Structure prediction request, 312 residues.
Amino acid sequence: MTTEKYDFAVIGAGGTGLGGAMYAARLGMKTIVFGATNGMELPVGGVITTTHVVENYPGFTTISGVDLAKEIEKHTRSYDLVTIKTEKVENIKKTGSFFSIKTNKGNYQARSLLIATGTKWRELEAEGSKDFRNKGVNYCALCDGPLYKKKIVAVAGGGDSAIKDALLLSEHADKVYIIARGKEIKPEPINFERVKKNKKIEVITGTNIKEVRGNKFVTEIVLDKPHNGSNILKVDGIFIAIGHIALSDIAKDLGVKLDKRGEIIIDHKTSETNVHGIFAAGDVTDKPFKQLITGVADACTAAHSAYEYLNR
Prediction:
């Protein structure tokens, strides 16, 4: 069987990868996108599909993450030069002037690569947290929030993602605790104001979760310091929003340099890595400001850089 050959292969079909594929097609490059990689089992559209409301993407004053992903995917699919495969990439090797890509369903070759594999949720390291995963311990407020209608929930984390999760959960639950280990929460200013005005939300700072307890499902969490006179907080569920881990194993195997956090080091002007022909963009890279808009911008830069690389 003849191996399909492409100019540009995108590993990761989130908004970042799709944006890069769209731009590559505009530059006349035959492009393939793979929608699942090691550790990444999200649908086409990626992590943004787990976001309830997006208000910081140009052209859309307010839009759900799912709908935004659909619009980006539709735009990308409008180019005949783009092929999207929902296949898991198992291995990539450099073979001559091509990168040989083996998936769970076939073999492909590409002259250049864009790694846009994103991240996965960082898990809570507390006793009982793994035992109760999907039994009260959750990582996607948009997915599982409706299950907690008129119940009491907690959100672990103090960044903007955690605060947005709490705001979403307040639409369902009667009470939402935000438990942050820092001295203060650090959301975007607009979300900070929304939390302060939301009577369902209570913020607990300078506190860690030591243990998650329950029977068949979560019933309480143990804090490392008292809140209202007790270290026990009664909840029906807890949502974890304490950061992400870069999905960079494929890049590492190809000899791409990573920083101490496991993020791909890129040239911030060109999105190039240290390996010729390999580019990276989005949350998997060492860019300090991680948003869909910046990921898409870097992916488009990567496509242009790949175009110049191939023409050299």
Remarks:
- The CA atoms of residues 159 and 186 lie 5 Å apart.
- Residues 37-41 have pLDDT under 50 and may be disordered.
